[in-house]
Task: structure prediction
Amino acid sequence: MLSQVYCSGSQPFRQRLLPWVQSTALSRSRATDRVQPSAIRHVRSWSNIPFITVPLSRTHGKSFAHRSELKHAKRIVVKLGSAVVTRGDECGLALGRLASIVEQVSVLQNQGREMMLVTSGAVAFGKQRLRHEILLSQSVRQALHSGQNQLKEMAIPVLEARACAAAGQSGLMALYEAMFTQYSICAAQILVTNLDFHDEQKRRNLNGTLHELLRMNIVPIVNTNDAVVPPAEPNSDLQGVNVISVKDNDSLAARLAVEMKTDLLIVLSDVEGLFDSPPGSDDAKLIDIFYPGDQQSVTFGTKSRVGMGGMEAKVKAALWALQGGTSVVIANGTHPKVSGHVITDIVEGKKVGTFFSEVKPAGPTVEQQGEMARSGGRMLATLEPEQRAEIIHHLADLLTDQRDEILLANKKDLEEAEGKDQVIRRRLAAPLLKRLSLSTSKLNSLAIGLRQIAASSQDSVGRVLRRTRIAKNLELEQVAVPIGVLLVIFESRPDCLPQVAALAIASGNGLLLKGGKEATHSNRILHLLAQEALSIHGVKEAIQLVNTREEVEDLCRLDKMIDLIIPRGSSQLVRDIQKAAKGIPVMGHSEGICHMYVDSEASVDKVTRLVRDSKCEYPAACNALETLLIHRDLLRTPLFDQIIDMLRVEQVKIHAGPKFASYLTFSPSEVKSLRTEYGDLELCIEVVDSVQEAIDHIHKYGSSHTDVIVTENEKTAEFFLQHVDSACVFWNASTRFSDGYRFGLGAEVGISTSRIHARGPVGLEGLLTTKWLLRGQDHVVSDFSEHGSLKYLHENLPVPQRNTN
Result:
């Protein structure tokens, strides 16, 4: 075994470092010790990768059961395959990828974790150097007088792999040293062979060396000593070189992880993870979690472009490590879009690659739930309208018949939120607690809304929107069809579940529901009632409640299973989902900054009622008033005084806009931002000089949600209604009317401020899309050419009338 320690900086730097290492060595705990949160170092943010400061405490002995637990991993081995380290031309190193990996390892090391690298790349790096030397050793005269093409055609002898390794090992380590130096981290090189693990004394020496390096906060970089290992069998994977088998490094990483009682082994390759069939085949699906025994159902494909281990060797090594108590993730380290944060994403518990676990979940995976929702949704869409309506009516009946059971489950959620679970209580503000609460009146209102949805669903799916006679006996129809599978993510609002379920049933869509932890008991019973209603026509699986530990960001990546994401919750939740969604459209609004403009010709009797209802009736709602715009002529009038007095009585905190503050000697606290959604009994008041200025203010600071004018001047009102570019614009009406139930839609899945597909309160119609049906009789396009026998008619045909009963 060869060992060499590389420290960043010069000898004086290492001398200055030694006392610090000695003083802190006693306080640093090993992988089996508990690390208190205060012991985790906080370092400056020199990286664009976010820091995670978590208590790293774990007793080794059993692997993690879930991805979410990986954030507690302290001792981590990262294995870099040849395909990750080498360039695409297989001659030299992929410096960009390597630099990114070093950065991520450094971030984790500086969080207080103990990182180890098992790396390939010496052969490729040595091949590059030796090839260069061979070219230089050619006749200087030939090199000077030959053309470039001729130079390229020079014969390069086959390079022996061990010689390449000997030539490349020092350069590879020097490269690692230079990169880790940028983060003030020391690195140590350890070269091993199989004999080092078979000899008990050498094993103890290796173990002791590694523990000592980790104790001194040094990153060990381990590799097989390819310069002295027996020659590998010739193969053509790496052109011109007999490659040392990557299987040695796979088994080395697994053996090292178990020997060092490592919490996590990350194996980076050139594929996303483990597939149920060879990657690239039509039916190949990435396996999110792999369990021991599942290898019988997996077909292994060809090996990577470099190396000889292949996925089968990686799986065997991973299962061996898992049996030894080390968790394993196999992931892609070469993809340009993810390689820059793949290691840190894995440690954060994100759904990256294939996670090896010994614990099988009791229920289906979220991928399986997505498939069930897709299949169930298609069956639901084929039902007769009367059958879908019958399901919704049955669900409405269950909400009232099972009222006591629902309220008992909701009581458990409220008790946990308000008293037993301090973590949840700190996270839930008073407005969210109000949203969490269910009551008899809420359930009765839900039942009424569901019956409205059932009535409107009689003529929705399959409704003909347009008919055109293209030519004789060639007719075209545009019909309404379901969107597909909806993912609705909601927090602290269990009443959202039956509303969304009924709309999905009416529109024939499959549905995945992800509720907040604070409403676990309420959501569970409401979902069971929805499935009970669906079962009367055999489509129980069309609606699925995601109960696994899936993070919202991971759900947003299921672009092959989900067609539309609808967030229901805080503006922060909506923004996070919009940011996380990759390739899946998101319907919703990130903020509900609703305005009310009180015109100079407003009615005294109407203004205070409208302001009170819009702001105070339910301040946590997205359609609650947030900014009150008052015409300048109303200042210091009885109307203005009445508004202020009413707000004081209702205990509304007032924030003054810049112009409003300039009119007052002693003003309320000046608003920090005119673009604020308070979600509480707080209100911004600003002064404007005209209706046009009010419109300009709304367009600049609003969120295109709901905006209102209060005036008795019809001309001014119509000007406001036509010129304000928001989803909902009202005249002399409360902002709280912006709601699917109040609009007569029965319920809503949310309020959309986007400009594509659906806008405003989104009910049944917003969950439908269209498809085209063309019925012909042996029609071909060539018949309609210049010399063809047929001509286009393009006649509009009458559309069947909707059933409005």
